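Incident log, structure service

09:12 report received: a user says their structure output differs between two submissions of the same chain.
09:20 pulled the input from the user's history:
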Amino acid sequence: MRRVQANDPRAFGELYDRHAARAWSVARAVCHDANRAEDAVQEAFLAIWRSHGSYQSERGSVQGWLMAVVRNRAIDATRRESACHRPPLAYHEDMGEVPAAGSTPDEVIARSEADALRGRLAHLPGAQAQVIALAYYGGLSHAEIAARLSLPPGTVKGRMRLGLQKLRDQLETVSSPAGAP
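09:34 re-ran on a clean worker, output below:
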């Protein structure tokens, strides 16, 4: 790992060779899908290469750190995939009104803002709400949304632009006092 931290690509290749099979097993157990597991492992090793300086030997083994990164990427991939298969406005039902015990003020504010966005999405045409929900809640790029919905990327971008403009207009209407320009 010291060689990887010194930006040695050969050492990174050895690290990958040594841990890739186990990483795939961990990702497969989380994702329950071979292709998604492969993607998660690739994302994880790319993240490991980019952030190899964050590894601290006193906090645990290299393998433990690697598998934690892989597991987190696999969870993210699974969440993105499940968000794509929800009906676009099903997000309204996901969260209750009461903050979870131990929530920080920032988490409560973020949850409140997410709830407000859900309410605003209900006033958009379904196609526009769908692409915004997939981007915001699913964390998907325009290209990923286009692939998921079998649409041209330009259509996704257009729907996103129109939907965001309508959301902007809604927010300006709410934040402007009556009679103000």
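09:41 both user submissions now match this output. Likely a transient worker issue. Closing.
09:42 reviewer note: Residues 9-31 form the longest helix (23 residues). Confidence is low (pLDDT under 50) at residues 89-98.
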